[in-house]
Amino acid sequence: MNEPSLSGTEAQPGVGPGNPGGEGGSPHSLTAPAGKAISGARQEPPLRALAFFGPAFLVCVGYMDPGNWATDLAGGSRFGYRLLWVLLLSNGIALMLQTLSARLGLVTGKTLAEHCREAYSRRVAIALWIFAEVAIVACDLAELLGGAIALQLLFGLSLPLALLITAFDVMLVLALAGRGFRLIEAVIFVLIATIGGCYLVEILIVRPGWPDVARGLVTPVLPSGSLFIAIGIIGATVMPHNLYLHSDLVRTRIPEASRYGLRPALRHLFWDTAIALNFAFLVNAAILIMAAGVFHRSDAAVTEIEQAYRTLSPLLVRLGGSSFAAAIAPLLFAVALFASGQASSITGTLAGQSVMEGFLRWKISPILRRLVTRAIAIVPALAVVLWRGHEELTALLVFSQVVLSFQLPFAMVPLVRFAGSRRLMGDLVLSGARKLAVWAAVLLVIGLNVFLLLQVAGVIRD
Question: Which of 120, 184, 247, 369 has the CB geometry, 3.0–4.6 Å to 112, for a possible disulfide?
Answer without folding.
Answer: 247
